[in-house]
Specification:
This protein is mainly α. The protein is built from six helices and seven strands; from the N terminus they run αββααββααβββα. It has helices at 2-27, 40-59, 68-91, 130-146, 158-189, 226-234, and strands at 31-32, 35-36, 100-102, 106-108, 194-195, 202-203, 209-210. The longest helix has 32 residues, at 158-189.
Length: 250
């Protein structure tokens, strides 16, 4: 139906746009476990405004009419920007991108996967190439939406295959993002004496901003980060949920 068709296409756009907004915040370090950049709000507002303008244009058409070509191109552009950001993120583990000077005070270096460490100065992150692989697979699967073909046996068509492909792709992204959250929090909270600049990634010539302090400042009181929890579990040989007798007071 025309109304449910709009709901379908609008929800797809919201999904892509929210993924893009998260990717921008993650790869540009607009928000970390201990810091939020002042750029996060205007960037979020910009993405929301773009999506709102897109919806307003679509709603200007009478019910029953829909600009399929324009809508598809709009979402493809959002998806391409999303993919490009993650491709650059993955390549940063194997390629040192040239720095661009912003005025005389800052140099521009993008991306910084796990601040403040340079990914080329440490063993390659296990999941460093995962976004690149997922982007390639997702692009191939998305081509089914653009290169349609007649249904086979009136059951299987390009659209159904696209939906089937999104299942393992979604699982792959979920697994990666969970692992990335653990590594990212450990990287930021594990070195409290070194912080990312508030307007990251506008950093100084060394690619990172180091704040000298007499002694490391402990992170603010919070739930133990996942790195600590994992280390404690790895160092314990007793089954999960068991009680150590010497810890009991009764």
């Amino acid at each position: 139906m025309p109304l449910t068709e709009r709901f379908d296409y609008f929800s797809a756009t919201i999904t892509i746009a929210s993924s893009l907004l998260f990717t921008i915040a993650r790869t540009w370090l607009l928000q970390t476990p201990n810091k939020t950049s002042r750029l996060l709000l205007p960037v979020s507002a910009g993405v929301i405004f773009i999506v709102y303008s897109h919806f307003s244009y679509l709603l200007s058409f009478p019910l029953g009419q829909f600009p399929y070509g324009y809508h598809t191109k709009f979402n493809v552009v959002l998806g391409m920007v999303h993919n490009l950001l993650w491709i650059l993120w993955s390549l940063r583990f194997v390629v040192r991108f040239p720095k661009m000077h912003v005025g005389t005070k800052y140099t521009f270096e993008y991306p910084i996967p796990y601040p403040p460490r340079d990914p080329l100065d440490r063993p390659r992150q296990r999941d460093g190439m995962t976004p690149l692989a997922l982007v390639v697979v997702m692009t191939v699967a998305m081509s089914l939406e653009l290169l349609d073909f007649a249904p086979i046996a009136r059951i299987i068509d390009a659209h159904s295959l696209w939906h089937a492909a999104t299942i393992p792709i979604a699982l792959g992204w979920w697994t990666f993002l969970c692992n990335d959250a653990v590594e990212f929090e450990g990287a930021v909270m594990g070195k409290p004496a070194t912080i990312v600049d508030e307007v990251a990634p506008l950093l100084n010539g060394s690619g990172r901003q180091v704040v000298s302090q007499p002694e490391p400042v402990a992170p603010p009181a919070k739930t133990p980060d996942y790195i600590t929890i994992a280390a404690n579990q790895a160092g314990s040989s007793r089954p999960r949920g068991s009680v150590v007798k010497e810890d009991r007071q009764d």
